[in-house]
Design brief:
With 72 residues, the chain is mainly alpha-helical. The chain has 2 helices and no strands.
Length: 72
Amino acid sequence: MKDDLSKIFSLISIGKRTMAVLRQNIALALIMKCAFLLLGIFGVATLWMAVIADDGVTLLVVLNSLRLLRKS
């Protein structure tokens, strides 16, 4: 960061964006896990479907996090 105090405001902005993306990622993962838990309880989803869905959500979370690398 160097000794430039004017960058504090940009750091606060980056932190807010990071927290927003983090909340999105957690919500997306939990919603998908709860959905497959319910589908599994009712016998609609199999274990393999849940595993593939979990891998898919992992990819979505990573891609969503990559948005933070864009300059804004």
